[in-house]
Amino acid sequence: MYSPELNLIHRKLIMEKGFLDKVEDNAAVQTWSETTQQEKGDSLAEGYVSELWDFTCISVT
């Protein structure tokens, strides 16, 4: 059996690897999304202005 300190380090390394995997996945998704939107002429096209502000309402009460 490993010492508690080694178990803790091992768990931290596993958590860190999981976090880095998620960051890498998110970056890949963002790149894919940006490329897809540019190819289709969606919101990332130069000069595009979102019209969503017409449909949003923020209440602070």
UniProtKB/TrEMBL annotation:
UniProt protein name = Uncharacterized protein
Q: Which organism is it from?
A: Gossypium davidsonii (Davidson's cotton)
